[in-house]
Write a structure and sequence with these properties.
CATH architecture of the domain at 123-280: 3-Layer(aba) Sandwich
Number of helices: 14
Radius of gyration: 21 Å
Shape: globular
Distance between the termini: 49 Å
CATH class of the domain at 123-280: Alpha Beta
Number of strands: 17
CATH superfamily of the domain at 123-280: NADH-ubiquinone oxidoreductase 51kDa subunit
Strand order of the largest sheet: 1-14-13-17-15-16
Structural class: alpha/beta
Amino acid sequence: MKTFKLGGIHPAENKMAASQPIEEFPLPKQGIIPVSQHLGAPAKLLVKRGDQVKTGQLIGETAGFISANIHSPYTGKVKKIDNVLDASGYKRQAVIIDVADEEEWEEDIDHSEDIIREITANPDEIVNKMKANGIVGLGGATFPSHVKLMVPEGKKIEYLIINGVECEPYLTNDHRLMLEKTEEMLIGIKILMKGLGVDKAIIGIENNKMDAVEHIRSMLKDFKGISVEPLKVKYPQGGEKQLIKALVNREVPGGKLPLDVGCVVNNVATAYSVYEAVQKNKPLIDRIITVTGKNLQKTANLKVRFGTQLSELVDHVGGLPEDTGKIVSGGPMTGKALPSLDVPATKGTAGILVMTQKEAKFADPRNCIRCAKCTEVCPQGLEPYLLHQFGELERPEDAEANGIMDCIECGSCNYICPSNRPLLEYVRVGKAKTSEMIRNRKQK
């Protein structure tokens, strides 16, 4: 069975919520909508205190090439514009909306459950509708998705790769979407194919989700050019470069992008949001979020409007257990520890993982024993033990020379290290310093 060849690990899957169907989460009394929910420049605010807004109304517009529109997930009144704590632990500008009892959508949005199958939009209209509706990558990076369809002159795309791998332990939101929103997702893939001008799309799914593989295959007779490929379970197969290697056996060189080898990669949830944006003119105002943990009363996959406090989602599954040690936004490998549950769900919130005290406890780090396990599992072929040193000693020139910017921050090195070294943490420090050095160099 196909997989990528270089490195990789096999953490426990812990997909406890895989059998839980998607639930529509009720609207909150108040929504807190950050103006930066994406990679790139924060959106420029279009509303002020006291304004009445409708569901789906544009409240923040793009402020640069790499930026994304922000829409109101609610009908209500803007209580205030304020700096609020977000999942990163920093205070950022947000629109606070008192949610009305009765919902009123923007008139040009089709928010029904009816499926629109005929794709009438041309490639330019597809890009424009994705941009207008604030579509970003829902696989984790939140990169503005319309930019991926703006292929530079001289580049030719041959394959659209669709990421249904969901290799991050615990998370099951993509799995449920593939089972429950299959046709809409497939129409979204056809839209992306039309926008890119390609006739081949491959959906990669790890073989611990064979129910999704078989279900999608049963529907492909109506979707010419789309195939689904089961993959061996191996982390981090959801990384763009690893998925391209597994599916089409092409290597993305260091410092290059998937488009340099004729590929564009999108997540299954992104494809679904593209369907809603192009076929129904619905902006990205909600997503499926997995709420999970070994000691929770129950687990869930919840369809949540952005701006809902994460504390409300945890209350829905019975609240925090007494032995809670850490709460993570995302999964255990690439997620970030939350400073508080009093932060809003955003476009980048894929899951909430409640870890026990035993799971959350860091073992004391010991000296590196030069075992080279971190180099064996690195899917990018890097030397994490060396990059750790360059990060700790603040040597960005050496870090750059040894490929630190190619690190995908998957955490495989941390997972495998027998000495419990905080390898990824210092690599992230080193990447930040190296990025700053590169920016300063370009400005000279």
